[in-house]
Amino acid sequence: MEEILLAIQACDNGELVFNLGNIRSFLYNSKWYPLRAVVNFAKALNNEGELTTDRALVELSFILPYIRIKEIEYNDHFPIAINNNEKLNEIKLLNEIIGGLVNDN
Fold first, then answer.
1. Which residues pair with 10 in a beta bridge?
2. How many CB atoms lie within 10 A of CB 77?
3. Where are the beta strands (DSSP E) in the chain?
4. What does the pLDDT profile of the chain (105 residues) look like in tens digits?
5. Of 62, 37, 61, whose CA–CA distance to 50 is shortest?
6. 33: how many CB neighbours lie within 10 A of its CB?
7. Beta 21-28 vs 31-34: how paired, if at all?
8. By the 8 A CB rule, do 67 and 42 touch?
9. Which residues, in sequence order, are bridge partners of residue 24?
10. What backbone phi and psi angles, to 5 degrees, belong to 75?
């Protein structure tokens, strides 16, 4: 997890280089991050090889308890913050997921 957090911090600082345009991304702390770039940065910190986007998603699923994936358009090398409406939608979605776990109908 520490390497992923370092990769996220690098992205927050604009230090993570990745392709611009529509990129499969994951939501973390109300920001969208480029999935493959973040995971591969973390892998590089451990002197490990690069992963495909699909394999990066699998690796991330072992680290984060919940993963939300979406195609996000990037115009620069910074994460994309979600707005209040998007936050409410994410809260509603999580509420439905939690409700499904609690109710065993």
1. none
2. 17
3. 21-28, 31-34, 69-74, 80-81
4. 899 999 999 999 999 999 999 999 999 999 999 999 999 999 999 999 999 999 999 999 999 988 999 999 999 999 999 999 999 999 999 898 888 888 765
5. 37
6. 26
7. antiparallel
8. no
9. 71
10. -110, -10
